[in-house]
Amino acid sequence: MNKTLLPLIATMMTLGQPVMAAADSPEKSTEMRIGYAVPDNEGLNLGLYIHVIFEGAIQYDANEMTRLAGNRITKIRVKVGNELSVQNNFVFITDNLESEPLYKQSVDKFDYGWNEVTLDQPFEIDGRQLFIGFRYESTGEVLSLDGEDDNNRANWIRLSQDAEGATGVWNHQGGGALNIQAIVEGESLPQNDVRIERHNIQSYAGTRETNPLSIVIR
Q: How far is residue 30's CA from residue 57's CA, in Å, rounded to a whole number?
């Protein structure tokens, strides 16, 4: 070690400060966005040119919600297709799609693209499984999907033509993820919580040549 650094390090240790004391500490995150859709993805709009009652939801299992327990859902983001005529709209949160919602809030109008609905009453997360979704009556391109990812939690749909939805059955639809997200706020959010979603690298490379690597981190 360079001897000229020893007095400086000894002084910092005497003051009870780490050697890297000059570095700023990162700010703690108190807000995160959860969902299966990529926010800036153009998405895929699917049309149903008959009057239909559309309900869509994404699912978060108990393992995910336990990590967020003690925080609050404050906003729900929904992306809808164009040529949309809407009425009787609402967003909801529930632990069972076949039961009455734990939280339900009317929405005057969904505009084309992303809509951010601020909840009148923030929803407290207690660790149970949750479904977050929306409902509207419409004709037009009522369905907006993100084709980036597909799993059995990202795309629950019920279609019907009667006001109570009695003719419709909740089913998981493949082919992407519904463009639905939730904003979670609180003081006990996971920090540095990332995973490698997928990666792609060429199976061969030349000597002293670059080898492109594509990684999706979520």
A: 25
Quick one: 119 exposed, middle or buried, by C-beta within 10 A (0-12, 13-18, 19+)? middle
CA–CA distance, 204 with 207 (Å, rounded to integer): 10
112's tokens: 């084309």
Task: Look up the pTM and report it.
Answer: 0.75
Question: How many whole angstroms from its chain centre is CA 70?
Answer: 18
Distance of alpha carbon 216 from alpha carbon 41, whole angstroms: 14
Structure tokens at 111: 């505009």
- Cα–Cα distance for residue pair 69/31, rounded to 1 Å: 14
pLDDT single digits (tens) 91-103: 999 999 999 999 9
Any bridge partners for residue 137, and if so which? 53, 87
> What region does 67 belong to: left with phi over 0, alpha with psi -120 to 50, or beta?
alpha
